Amino acid sequence: AQTVTQSQPEMSVQEAETVTLSCTYDTSESDYYLFWYKQPPSRQMILVIRQEAYKQQNATENRFSVNFQKAAKSFSLKISDSQLGDAAMYFCAYRSGGATNKLIFGTGTLLAVQP
Amino acid sequence: NAGVTQTPKFQVLKTGQSMTLQCAQDMNHEYMSWYRQDPGMGLRLIHYSVGAGITDQGEVPNGYNVSRSTTEDFPLRLLSAAPSQTSVYFCASSYGSFYGYTFGSGTRLTVV
To answer: Which residues in chain B are contacts of A96 at CB distance < 8 A?
Structure first.
């Protein structure tokens, strides 16, 4: 079975600085997708960024980028120029590319942004 | 588009009661899932569906039933509520593997 591990329960960053959130996963599948979701205090789940496993190039969305290391099964999220609105819980997620298409989450990292 | 609609937003149940959490999506998504979110445990998959008439168990299915008679609706039934089922429940839907899931706003359920 696939598993997703986030080893940092809490992180803190100064406004305008850069922070990296870690995620590792375990799978025997070759076809899969990885995601980072943001959950602010409103509780809404917001998709931040996605990465296809077959792509070597790291995904980027504005201030958010990933470092995808397929051999190491690592998928970290880098937030540049951190803003107060980035404060939230961040979840790493794995989605199988097979028939089930299940989406499995890590336990999350709570990010605080200090002014 | 309304997206994924969950009702109710809040619910208090007594131990032993049954209830159904409703989930509807208007995006013609094939894939739908139910999660529960507990502090320190992330979102855990309860049940999921890959299309109308097809459902399967996730990581924590005990005490819950689902059915998928239409593409749009995916209700979650609590058969006999227990305090351990106190949680926030999310329904989500998706078009395909490449796409992330779209989530509803959640239901906070308390079982006393």
So the answer is: 97
The C-alpha atoms of residue B109 and residue B12 are separated, in whole angstroms, by 6
Dihedral sign computed on CA atoms, order B37, A67, B101, A25:
negative
* B83: preceding bond cis by omega (within 30 degrees): no
Nearest CA distance, A111 vs chain B (angstrom): 14
Of A31, A35, A100, the CB nearest to B50: A100
Distance CA B7, CA B23 (A): 7
Report the SS3 class of residue B84.
Answer: helix
Test B58 with A95 for CB contact under 8 angstroms: no
- Location of structure tokens 């490449």: B98
Beta strand A10-14 with A109-114 is parallel
Give the span between the Cα atoms of B57 and A58, in whole angstroms. 33
Among B64, B22, B67, B23, residue whose Cα is nearest residue B49: B67
Nearest to B50 among A6, A37, A101 (CB): A101
Quick: pLDDT tens for A19-69. Answer: 999 999 999 998 899 999 999 999 999 999 999 999 989 999 999 999 999
Length of chain B, in residues: 112
CA-CA distance, B106 to B58, in Å (whole number)? Answer: 18
Token readout for A23 is: 């995620």
